[in-house]
Write a structure and sequence with these properties.
Distance between the termini: 12 Å
CATH architecture: Alpha-Beta Barrel
Structural class: alpha/beta
Number of domains: 1
Order of helices and strands: EHEHEHEHEEHEHEHH
Helix content: 25-40%
Strand content: 15-25%
Number of helices: 8
Number of strands: 8
CATH class: Alpha Beta
Radius of gyration: 16 Å
Bound molecules: D-xylitol-5-phosphate, zinc ion
Shape: globular
CATH superfamily: Aldolase class I
Length: 216
C-alpha cells in the first residue's frame, strides 16, 4: 500500500497560509489535509468553501477535505466546487452513506468515510466496497494537539483484515513517536498537524514518518 503523510493545515499559521502550504509541500508531504468544522458536529469552527477555494489556488498537492459537520450532504457540492480532491464525511452525521458517496464519486472526487472514537467499524462496513478510503479518528474530533487514544487502534486492525486493499487513514495525535503503532496495525495514510507544523524541520519529520511507517 502506498504510504502517505498528510499535514493537517489546522496547525498552520493561518495568517501566512500560502507560505505554510509551500513549506510542507517542499518538505515532502503527499497531500494536504483540510479540517472543516461547523461548531455543531464538533465544538469548534474552522474553515468553509471560500477558504478551501483559496487554498486550491495556491496548492500543488491534492486536497483531502475532512468534513466535521452535521450536514455533509447539504455542503458536499460546495466543497467539491471549491476544489476538494478527496471528500471525507462522518458516518455519525450521515448514516445513509451510499447516496452521498456515489454523488461525490460521480463528480470526480474520491469519497471517504470517517469514524469517531466511540463508533465501531460495523457502522461503515457495508460501504467499504464503494469508498476510496476510511478515516479512523485517533482523537475526539475538534482540535489539534491532542494525545492519541490507543483504544482506537484496534479498529485499524479490524478494518485492515476486512479490506486488504483499502486506504486506511488515521488522524489525531500522530507523531514520530506514535506512528509505528498505527502503521503496524495496517494504516497507510497518516494525518499530522502539530508534529509537522510545529517542527523546526518539517522535512525531517515527514521523511522519518515515511521511514517508520514503511518498516512497521
Ligand atoms: C482533529 C482534526 C485533525 C487535527 C490533527 O479534529 O481532524 O486533523 O488537525 O491534529 P494533531 O496532529 O495535532 O493531533
Ligand atoms: Zn482531520
Amino acid at each position: 500500500m502506498k504510504i502517505r503523510i498528510l499535514p493537517s493545515l489546522l496547525s498552520a499559521d493561518f495568517a501566512r497560509l500560502a507560505d505554510e502550504i509551500a513549506r510542507v509541500e517542499d518538505a515532502g508531504a503527499d497531500m494536504l489535509h483540510v479540517d472543516v468544522m461547523d461548531g455543531h458536529f464538533v465544538p469548534n469552527i474552522t474553515i468553509g468553501p471560500l477558504v478551501v477555494d483559496a487554498i486550491k489556488r495556491v496548492a500543488r498537492l491534492p486536497l483531502d477535505v475532512h468534513l466535521m459537520i452535521s450536514d455533509p450532504g447539504g455542503y458536499a457540492d460546495s466543497f467539491i466546487d471549491a476544489g476538494a480532491d478527496r471528500l471525507t464525511f462522518h458516518i455519525e452525521a450521515h448514516p445513509a452513506a451510499q447516496e452521498l458517496a456515489g454523488r461525490i464519486r460521480s463528480k470526480g472526487v474520491l469519497p471517504g468515510l470517517c469514524i469517531s472514537p466511540e463508533t465501531g467499524v460495523e457502522a461503515i462496513e457495508p460501504y467499504l466496497g464503494i469508498i476510496n478510503h476510511v478515516l479512523v479518528m485517533t482523537v475526539h474530533p475538534g482540535f489539534g494537539g491532542q494525545e492519541l487514544i490507543d483504544g482506537c487502534i484496534e479498529k485499524v486492525w479490524l478494518l485492515r483484515e476486512k479490506a486488504p486493499e483499502l486506504n486506511i487513514e488515521v488522524d489525531g495525535g500522530i507523531y514520530t513517536e506514535t506512528i509505528a503503532r498505527v502503521a503496524s496495525a495496517g494504516a497507510n495514510e497518516f494525518v499530522a498537524g502539530t508534529a509537522i507544523f510545529k517542527a523546526e524541520d518539517p522535512a525531517a519529520v515527514i521523511s522519518r514518518m515515511h521511514e517508520i511507517a514503511r518498516s512497521a
